[in-house]
């Protein structure tokens, strides 16, 4: 059987536009029928003992990276950043007041954009406010995303005061030609210096973000980048396929499409990076696109079936509630999902009026919860027992097994092992795990496929 990386017929059959399944239902199906009133009700209904995680979104960067798909903007002046920090502080207060108690917080994640684009005193002030209004668990993970080329020395004192336990450094690619094309110049030494400084601050875990499928990348060049990444001695690594969606992110239109690797070339790059990280670096593959040292909590969670998947990708966090703070941030509660207003001035205006800035969301149905669980286990464990999962949710297995009918074809292609009840994604099929998960996505079948809203699956 030919390798999945070099089989053009296989790639043609399974290529398409699919979600990354950081939620189910996925964000394109959120709607304006869920707003601030529903969110307030959901918060008030949470059990007093419920632990929560906090995600704080900072929609600013010091430079525009052309590959970026995040909700962010370049801001060179300090005033808009301080105004935004004030709005974040107000939203934190609204949340604490709505909960009516100092809720237990087990994880805090600063994302963006580039969180360190905020002034240092704003970062420290917001972190202190969280500790004042919530009960941060002694072992709580406090993580932040960092651009190593935009980490001035004056920010280090602020980072030291935040009590960070994990930092994620954006690498993407170390090749100069690739960096010039995507507008992100960043030397290996800058990245190394950032990692060294963070470890000196007490950050005990470093994650690196790498991307394949960027313009001018080759199999040889991504291998070189992956080997340089290992020199930084990361505890974790995330390897993402570039999502070229210029109809959603207009700046991506500046990337020359003719320079983008496609199909088999992308898969060969992913496989080459995986080989370096796993075989040379000893990192354990986790789910679709993560890697971790064997002793890392993420690797252990993957081995014990406790790995979770959320809006920040794979996580070990078991809190039943994720609260999103900031413009465009998404929250996940037992009742459903909510997303804040993405427009920064609109977000700030609503919060200034003392209202939650929720602009859309979705209420979870019982069927959604079942399908979400099936999809999450496929994405995390690369396996699921469909009848057993249905029984756990008090549901019949017939509909799910009907959806699973195409798995026979997947099995013939060597992508899964399938006995009619349990599916296990094979190593050959790992790059196509989203295709397996998508079989159980009822919303995807109903979507208007003439309006693309997802990146390529391959």
Key traits:
458 residues; three-stranded antiparallel sheet; Arc Repressor Mutant, subunit A; 17 helices; 19 strands; 2 domains; alpha/beta; pyruvate-formate lyase- activating enzyme; globular
Write structural notes for this entry.
It is a single chain. The chain is an alpha/beta fold and about 450 residues long. It has 17 helices and 19 strands. Strand 9 and strand 10 (about 290) form a beta hairpin. The protein starts with 7 loop residues before the first helix and ends in a 12-residue tail after the last helix.
Overall form: globular
Average per-residue pLDDT, rounded, comes to 94
Into which percentage range does the β-strand content fall?
15-25%
The CATH superfamily of the largest domain is known as: tm_1862 like domain
State the end-to-end distance.
19 Å
Number of domains: 2
Number of strands: 19
Secondary-structure class: alpha/beta
The appropriate CATH architecture of the largest domain is: Alpha-Beta Horseshoe
Radius of gyration: 22 Å
Describe, in short, the structure shown.
With 458 residues, the protein is of the alpha/beta class.
Topology overview:
Layout: H1 8-14, H2 36-44, E1 52-58, E2 60-61, E3 73-74, H3 78-99, E4 104-112, H4 120-133, E5 135-146, H5 154-161, E6 166-172, H6 176-182, H7 188-200, E7 205-212, H8 219-231, E8 236-241, H9 264-280, E9 284-286, E10 290-292, H10 297-304, E11 308-310, E12 313-315, E13 321-325, E14 330-333, E15 336-340, H11 344-352, E16 358-363, H12 366-381, E17 383-385, H13 386-392, H14 398-403, H15 407-412, E18 416-418, E19 422-425, H16 433-438, H17 442-446
Parallel strand pairs: 1-4, 1-13, 2-3, 4-5, 5-6, 6-7, 7-8
Antiparallel strand pairs: 8-10, 9-10, 11-12, 14-15, 15-16, 17-19, 18-19
Helix pairs in contact: 3-4, 3-11, 4-5, 8-9
């Amino acid at each position: 059987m030919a390798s999945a990386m070099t089989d053009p017929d296989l790639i043609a059959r399974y290529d398409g536009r699919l979600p990354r399944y950081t939620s189910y239902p996925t964000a394109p199906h959120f709607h304006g029928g869920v707003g601030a009133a529903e969110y307030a009700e959901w918060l008030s209904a949470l059990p007093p003992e419920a632990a929560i995680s906090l995600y704080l979104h900072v929609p600013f960067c010091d430079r525009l990276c052309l590959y970026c798909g995040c909700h962010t903007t370049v801001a060179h002046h300090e005033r808009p950043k301080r105004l935004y920090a004030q709005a974040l502080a107000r939203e934190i207060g609204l949340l604490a007041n709505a909960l009516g108690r100092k809720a237990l917080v087990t994880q805090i994640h600063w994302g963006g954009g580039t969180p360190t684009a905020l002034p240092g005193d704003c970062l420290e002030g917001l972190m202190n406010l969280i500790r004042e209004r919530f009960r941060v668990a002694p072992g709580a993970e406090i993580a932040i995303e960092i651009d190593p080329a935009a980490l001035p020395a004056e920010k280090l004192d602020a980072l030291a005061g935040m009590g960070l336990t994990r930092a994620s450094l954006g690498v993407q690619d170390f090749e100069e030609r690739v960096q010039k094309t995507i507008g992100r110049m960043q030397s290996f030494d800058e990245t190394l210096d950032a990692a060294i400084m963070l470890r000196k601050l007490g950050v005990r875990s470093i994650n690196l973000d790498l991307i394949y499928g960027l313009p001018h990348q080759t199999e040889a060049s991504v291998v070189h980048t992956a080997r340089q990444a290992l020199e930084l001695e990361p505890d974790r690594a995330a390897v993402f396929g570039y999502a070229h969606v210029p109809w959603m992110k207009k700046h991506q239109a500046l990337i020359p499409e003719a320079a983008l690797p496609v199909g088999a070339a992308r898969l060969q790059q992913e496989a080459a990076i995986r080989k370096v990280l796993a075989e040379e670096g000893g990192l354990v593959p986790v789910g679709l696109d993560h890697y971790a040292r064997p002793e890392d909590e993420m690797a252990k969670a993957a081995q014990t079936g406790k790995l979770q998947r959320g809006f920040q990708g794979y996580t070990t966090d078991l809190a039943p509630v994720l609260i999103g703070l900031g413009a465009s941030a998404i929250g996940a509660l037992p009742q459903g999902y909510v997303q804040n207003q993405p427009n920064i001035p609109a977000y700030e205006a609503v919060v200034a009026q003392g209202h939650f800035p929720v602009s859309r969301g979705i209420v979870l149905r019982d069927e959604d919860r079942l399908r979400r669980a099936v999809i999450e286990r496929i994405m995390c464990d690369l396996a699921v027992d469909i009848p057993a999962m249905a029984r756990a949710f008090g549901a019949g297995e017939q509909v799910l097994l009907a959806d699973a009918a195409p798995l026979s074809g997947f099995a013939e292609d060597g992508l899964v092992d399938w006995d009619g009840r349990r599916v296990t994604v094979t190593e050959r099929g790992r790059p196509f795990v989203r295709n397996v998960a998508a079989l159980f996505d009822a919303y995807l079948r109903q979507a208007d496929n003439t309006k693309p809203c997802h990146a390529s699956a391959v």
